[in-house]
């Protein structure tokens, strides 16, 4: 089993709060996030952008490996993921992730490519996560 970690800290609450997110690799290191980066054009990141990056990267890698298993090589894959955040009652819901792929795979039949791409979409670990059980453990201090 491989475990990767990230952490977030939020100081203050609501619109006035300021957050920082960091990742195990250090690619994100106290990167700003908050209301202004999620709902406005503030400098920093937001959860939807991070999910989109993860989904695009995961799907593209899964497709790359699936194509290699089928004997294809030497092509390119470029994927954009657009994660949608919609109003949901008093809150919000992430309602979808739209993957847009531009691919160059020499020698592949269109039907075979569609089959392999659909399998990668369904089976990449981030696609599975977006349907997975989520657990929470916590401690509370005053």
UniProtKB/TrEMBL annotation:
SUPFAM superfamilies: OsmC-like (SSF82784)
Matching InterPro entries: KH_dom-like_a/b (IPR015946), OsmC/Ohr_fam (IPR003718), OsmC/Ohrsf (IPR036102), OsmC_Ohr_Peroxiredoxin (IPR052707), Peroxiredoxin_OsmC (IPR019904)
Protein name per its UniProtKB record: OsmC family protein
């Amino acid at each position: 089993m491989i475990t990767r970690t990230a952490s977030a800290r939020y100081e203050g609450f609501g619109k006035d709060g300021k957050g920082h997110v960091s990742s195990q690799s250090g690619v994100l290191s106290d990167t700003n996030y908050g209301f202004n980066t999620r709902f406005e054009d503030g400098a920093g990141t937001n959860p939807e952008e991070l999910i989109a990056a993860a989904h695009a990267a995961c799907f593209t890698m899964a497709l790359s490996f699936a194509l290699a298993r089928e004997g294809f090589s030497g092509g390119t894959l470029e994927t954009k993921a657009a994660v949608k955040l919609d109003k949901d009652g008093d809150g919000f819901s992430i309602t979808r992730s739209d993957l847009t792929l531009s691919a160059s795979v020499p020698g592949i039949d269109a039907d075979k490519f569609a089959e392999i791409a659909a399998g990668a979409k369904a089976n990449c670990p981030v696609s599975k996560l977006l349907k997975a059980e989520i657990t929470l453990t916590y401690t509370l201090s005053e």
